Amino acid sequence: MFGWMRRTPRSVVILACGIAACLLFGGAVAHITDLLRHGLRPYDWAPGWLNFYWSSLAVLDPFVAVLLLRGKRRGANLACVIVATDIAANWYAVYGIQHSDFLAKPDLQRLTAFTLLVLGAAPFLRRYLAN
After folding, report:
1. Helices 10-38 & 106-126, crossing angle to 10 degrees?
2. pLDDT by residue (tens digit) across 55-71?
């Protein structure tokens, strides 16, 4: 680890974990709403495995958010896994299924920014988070 990473102020760590947790809770609300409105296959245009993945985020997102709020290192690790797989799934859906592009999809733009935030902040946060 680089020396300047060790000097991350604790208040920045708390703020970053709080922001990530809030955004994960927001994502969970969106997935839960889709499930309540449209049933177990809320994205009828997407293949079953993609529907299953996105629907599973209704449970995984709040679980990881709680881990982050509790200051757990595995929360940061799982957040990285979730955002990396979610961004890959969304890019596949936009380009491979919908044949659209990045500029036409504001949701994809927001998810990309969130992914960059989580993946960029994780190395700074890990030192301060408990096992």
Report:
1. 140
2. 999 999 999 999 999 98
Per residue in 5-40, pLDDT (tens digit) is: 566 677 888 888 899 999 999 999 999 999 999 998
Q: Which amino acid is at 50?
A: L
Q: How many residues does the chain have?
A: 131
* pTM metric for this prediction: 0.87
- Distance, in Å, from the CA atom of 34 to the CA atom of 54, rounded to the nearest integer, reads 10
d(CA 84, CA 51): 17
End-to-end CA distance of the chain: 17
Reported as type and span, the H/E element at residue 35 is helix 10-38
Distance CA 6, CA 20 (A): 20
Backbone φ and ψ of 72, nearest 5°: -95, 135
